[in-house]
Design goal:
homotetramer; alpha+beta; two-stranded antiparallel ribbon; about 50% helix; 7-stranded mixed beta sheet; 21 helices
């Protein structure tokens, strides 16, 4: 604890006309003492306007703490600012005596600990919302199994879900007219296809591209999540070609207006908001937006990585390669090639040149995406995201990402998911309720046997 | 239930690609059936993007309902979308077995009924926030004692307290540059000193006045609360004089810059937000704002009504008039005058001309404001508001509001409360914790005896 | 001249660090002396930054002048700040010696008087542009024939034409979201169909109406010109019906989107900009705007007054009524009715009930609009405006404006002009170059004989 | 001339409903033919709204031209679209007959060639203002002596002076919140101290710096001119130290608020606006702005290069070194050192280490800045700019710019000019009228003898 800031704190209290009695026996109090005193002061003020200044002080104080001090702060929130067990037990007795709606509501209220009120008040400080998000970011980095941290984490997540309700988010187009303050966030947070400085950024914001983000009014300078799209003719099957495409000279001329929006990257910016989902809304809002602004766009697809494919293949290959599948998708000479691939002996060029791999890998990948499951849903996290949104698995693209990372995670394969406005809601329902995965006829042909039912195309109901 | 809108609803479901199975056996379903089907559909969609459209549909549907149908909707929320008692009981057992923070949190979560999730999703519809506020407005107008409505009301209030966290509100100056859409709200909601059309409104927004409101990003066109101030030289003691003052010709010239901001009216706009308090923050934010923007303003006062004075006097007078107070504040000829006043025999002019009343009424009013209590706090609601904010009761003004309403509620008296930035926080603390009321020496002189301690002025601590 | 402001002026000069020598022998100088001194100071400063303060001072000084003093100011500009005749004569000799482009340019420059530079510098003061517009407004009100004033007027007009170049104007939609400061200008300047207060104004800005204005960046709070439109189904033939139409309840539902924009009023706001034309651009920009924003609007028409019809008829009727026209458009019993009309014996109801007038007046009006000329262009000023813009005279409407003014100027008739995007430019060319007037077949039928060629519809050229 | 764009042009004419007769005998017209036809069409349209489209076409056409074609265009403007000599001569006769203000005005009007109207109409096209500025940029690059180009250049300059009147410019602060589109212009146009990419740019926009620009509403994305300042404590004497200073961590804390604004770079962005001066206004507006926004700033200085010093020294040294000056400023061993310097034998370190140079060079530089003249004004262009604005030559800084360029142009010297709000206007007057140069006592001491009168400090006049 920095004594200078303590004297500044005393000064601030005096300016606010607040009593300094708290500190009178503590000439150089430690971090914990200041924390506890400030927090209890704040809770006693019960919403009085000067509480904003105390909240600001707590945030500043927290930010200056060491890791251990921050952990101490969370333990304090958990241990000292928990709910009153006696009041909870009384509420339980009331509910058990008369199981009315009102008594249940009262029980819920009794379970709400005072730290929730504290966190709500911290939000009133200037920059308070961002400070709380940063606080949860800290928390998520701490040792994962400690139930104390898990409880505080859940409290924050619960608050964030209320505050970041979709009804409060704003969709904004991000382009070269956007303040630099926001644009530098794109460079910082793009992790799917890294942005190589400001020139690369500008390229991604030209007229044949589109970048859209969700913003919250309390954090106007940071997109919560953003998606990058390229406007093309036809569905792109190679991400390098997509990214390196020359910009249009004088805007699109009418005879070659793009007909396709390819979403090639979607990124969350704030780790501290993990678990508050925006992604599905964002893509769909962008589609709604483009449907009005750019009616010449008639199809919406992704060009997506398959992050878990090679990991899965490594694990499953021994058994797959023994059984074959009786359907001819595993070419005779495929085993040797896949073995070499899994041993890490093939570089991008060698993979690209291998006919057996070109035949076999897409078929294996189709199995992975459609048949490999984790708790009844697709094992691949990107597949889970898009299929869960109601998209359809459309096409598996050979050598679509020959970067080292692309080779490592998916042997260069990438996949297109199609967002079809007519079938999205139905696909979503089928996915949620029957765990059904929507895929195209082309993918169907890569799968073994007739045993896996393809999702029905929408008949007129 | 209007069959036309039902067919439109079917059409909408089809456009969204949603199944119509829900409705297949109900050619002309009634309001309740549609409500229940829409709500259960919405909850099943679990946040999928097309849930926005369903939410919009539920709101439209609700709005078209009769009073009885709306009440039915609230009963449905209460009875059908309540928490799962079995899950609650299991959570109680867990907590009783192991009274950990985590188990308590889980118990709280178990108490949260699905209708909360429904209400959160309704908020995602365009205009959803306003629709929920209107819904609570409806609810508050319904028969007050029904615990079913009270439970839903509490749910909404709980959501609103989270959403309308002070950290999300924006202070905006309202002036003649403000969109008419917002200005007409001032005319609609000003209830302290009614605005007589657009000319009166413009007068209230000129350079020697100030109007400020809190806005929430989701309701950008309605101030949640607004306060009106007049910038004057010296503390105003008459509201009519204040309102009728001529506007400055060419702005204030430097030799007579105003030194006082007189807050003469503060109004909430949205009944549906009753119980979510903004008023104390608003006044203090305006003071902070003026301290920077208009440093020549050195004092901040109100010119406030005393809504409960005459009612209190009527009740207490028999005893007060018998006892006297031994201090000479009750003038010898006062009894007769007050009796006549209470019998309603005196009009404004007669009151104004009465020397005994001019001596006696302020003293009685000082007693009312300082000594009359309701649950240990001042009985007068306006006094409760300002003193609770940390203001000081400064001065009681004779014949300050000679309007019929002013005569009826307070015999023409009004009062100034002073917001002193140096003592506000301390006054607030003393008020909250020891029920102390801050008043000036002038008021002190109107009170009987030395028994009532005046709040200490801030010594240098 | 107010001595107080003179001392303030001295103070200002001192604050600017400027010499007070100018004023040293003039303890109480008169208006003219101050004017001249300030103006010569300003010209000597040659663009130095403190010239802004002097410019502001001149404007303030001018504004405080009497009519006679203002006239004196204009005479001073003319007499004292005129071009240097010697320099002009030298430039003439140069040009006559060598008639080169450069010498001609130099001659033009020599003709530019210093007062132009003065006026340009006045424009740099805060609010300077508006002050110069007001100055010209004053000038236009002064006795018209004085060539001195005409010269200054021409100088200002020349500056305004440069400054208010169409490239600098901004088209803005005006609606209920617009600041009240701008909206009150609509009430003030609408002179075609007066706005009856703020409720009427709001009605004119609802979703089935549109109001658009041109704004200049230097005068952001005053529309230079604005046009009001109603969005209807079909071409409106009655202005009262149009204005009194009920607003839509919940916006237009898709099955009855309006297909027509009826421009029913266009108003200039600033008299001081008379002669700088915006009107034709405004209407066409609004049409371009609606074509994108409201593609369901397929026709654009006016509902226009015919201000000169009755005046013309009064003058021409003796001859017209004698000759007849041999075409049967003048009904046998028309003469008596028209005579009564012209004698002022008929009120609105009597006109409305007269079959002969209903047959005859439209035919006479068609003659007036198409055949009556003033310097080869249509005699009617409104016709001149719209036809000059390339619109087509479409339809003459019986009893379209039964207001006293409508009866007085055009016996209740109004007319629709159609703006057809395909033919506007050609109509404009034909109008400008061959004085041709575009009209519809319906109007053609009202005209006598085949002698008047109708403008050809556009064949593929 | 590209035939494709010709067919597009024909299409456009047809869409506008304009006659194609112009082109009927020219299946593949050349650049000149199209130019002439478009321009004459435009002038005939006399302001009709479709003229905007033609203006756009002319600009597009011009932009596609070769250098020779562009020159041809300017010749066409000069030769064909010049004023009517007959009309000029008639106006001359009128003026000579009656030398009235009106006849002079008419003569000026007769001298205005139609190409001015053409240029005004080009300004109405989207982006027209920028296109005309680019056109003048082209013109300025063409062979300088051709009077034809000089005439067109003068026409454009005359228009720009009217359009870019100071009253229409907007001062804007440029910071990291500014759109990237504008920020990249700073990188492009900063030529005094080059910006090394986006990180350097961000540094220049932090809270201890300030960047301000003038913008015109018709070119919102390009600052016409911008100035960069550093906020420091005390007057900076070294530009590298200034630029490399660490940014403040948490904003300035109150005990060390900066008291000085150092303007270290001012740049015009648009060559095409050469001759339209903004610089003096910009600096003074920024000073006015800071005086309000940052009252802790009490002095405003530049840290400026001395671009002509070494060039002047080379020329004057032979004579100066012979005469000495009898004042002791030329140290005994100075001659040798200056000789070596002028022979280019000294690098930055050697100069820095030379005591004789440190004594002699500032004295020589003072002579250069104060005594060296060009047409009665200071010979140094930067001195001319700041002294002409009313600034005072304050201090000559040894080794203030050790960059190769700094060594080459001024042997590492830089100079501070002080903008003192109290004396600026007087300095400006004295400079303009008596060619007086304001300098400090410190500079006075560097000058020879008492012969050069220092400008008087302002006594109370």
């Amino acid at each position: 604890m920095n004594t200078f800031s303590f004297s500044a704190l005393l000064q601030k209290f005096q300016n606010l006309g607040l009593s300094l009695d708290l500190f009178k026996d503590k000439p150089r109090p430690n971090f914990d003492e200041v924390t506890h005193d400030l927090c209890s002061t704040l809770l006693q003020l019960r919403g009085e306007a000067s509480s904003v200044a105390i909240a600001e002080e707590i945030i500043r104080h927290y930010r200056g703490g060491t890791l251990a001090e921050k952990q101490g702060f969370f333990r304090y929130l958990h241990d000292t600012l928990g709910a009153d067990a006696g009041r909870v037990d009384q509420a339980i007795r009331n509910w058990q005596g008369t199981p009315s709606g009102q008594n249940l509501q009262a029980l819920g209220a009794a379970c709400e600990p005072p730290r929730i009120e504290l966190l709500r008040t911290l939000n009133t400080a200037p920059g308070g919302t961002m400070a709380l998000i940063d606080m949860r970011d800290d928390l998520l980095k701490m040792a994962g199994d400690d139930p104390v941290f898990a409880v505080i984490d859940e409290d924050l997540l619960h608050l964030f879900r209320a505050w970041f309700n979709r009804g409060f988010l704003e969709l904004r187009r991000i382009d070269w007219q956007t303040p630099a303050l926001i644009l530098e966030k794109l460079i910082e947070y793009e992790s799917v296809h890294e942005i190589q400085g400001w020139d690369d950024l500008r390229r991604r914001l030209e007229s044949d591209r589109g970048c859209f983000g969700f913003f919250h009014p309390a954090i106007p300078d940071v997109p919560l999540i953003f998606v990058e799209a390229a406007l093309t003719n036809g569905i792109s099957d190679n991400v390098r070609a997509l990214l390196q495409q020359e910009p249009p000279r004088n805007g699109h001329t009418p005879d070659k207006l793009p007909n396709t929006a390819v979403f090639y990257s979607i990124n969350n910016c704030l780790q501290g908001l993990r678990g508050v989902s925006f992604g599905n809304f964002l893509i769909k809002h962008v589609i709604e937006h483009l449907a009005v602004e750019a009616p010449h766009i008639t199809q919406y697809v992704t060009l997506s990585p398959i992050p878990g494919f090679m990991r899965w293949l490594k694990k499953e290959w021994p058994q797959l390669s023994q059984n074959g599948d009786g359907k001819g998708v595993l070419a005779p000479d495929a085993k040797e090639a896949v073995d070499a691939l899994l041993r890490g002996e093939l570089n991008a060029d060698m993979i690209a040149a291998s006919q057996p791999l070109q035949t076999t890998l897409p078929a294996l990948c189709a199995r992975y995406l459609v048949l490999a499951k984790s708790r009844d849903k697709p094992a691949d996290p990107v597949a889970r995201f898009h299929l869960g949104n109601g998209a359809r698995l459309e096409r598996i693209n050979w050598m679509a990402d020959a970067s080292p990372n692309g080779i490592a995670q998916s042997a260069g394969l990438m996949v297109n998911y199609v967002y079809d406005r007519k079938t999205m809601a139905r696909n979503h329902e089928a996915y949620e309720q029957q765990n059904e995965v929507a895929y195209s006829l082309a993918v169907r042909k890569l799968l073994p046997g007739p045993a896996v039912p393809m999702i029905k195309l929408a008949p007129a109901r």
